[in-house]
Design a protein that fits this description.
Layout: E1 2-4, E2 6-13, H1 15-22, E3 39-44, H2 52-71, H3 84-90, E4 91-96, E5 99-101
């Protein structure tokens, strides 16, 4: 088991995100409020459970846009107002200050 020198921010949609995602009548899947899907973002390990919000305040728009794009790629249908306050209203945020790699093979990264 290897430790990864990153803090993990896990994002899960709250009701406003679920309602927005389910508002499209495109024949695609729907999200339930009990959906277990989350997204994990690795951030520098200098941010931890005590100061991660400093990172989020600077980078929330990238994460917000990524979460919207994961559901609907057309930015014209994204909410116009995407402030930090909106971000916190739309998403649950969980912090893990330790990340372990349990795989035996080498970690591969892509840009």
């Amino acid at each position: 088991m290897k430790t990864i020198n990153r803090t993990v921010i896990t994002i899960k949609g709250k009701k406003p995100y679920v309602d927005w995602a389910n508002s499209f009548d495109d024949g695609g899947p729907k999200i339930s409020k009990n959906d277990l899907h989350t997204t994990a973002y690795l951030i520098p390990d200098t941010y931890d459970e005590f100061n991660y919000e400093n990172f989020l305040k600077k980078n929330f728009k990238t994460i917000f846009d990524s979460e919207l794009e994961s559901w609907m790629t057309d930015p014209r249908v994204w909410p116009r107002n995407r402030t930090y306050k909106d971000f916190k209203r739309w998403f649950y945020i969980q912090i893990s200050d330790l990340a372990f790699d349990l795989a035996k093979d080498d970690l591969i990264t892509e840009e």
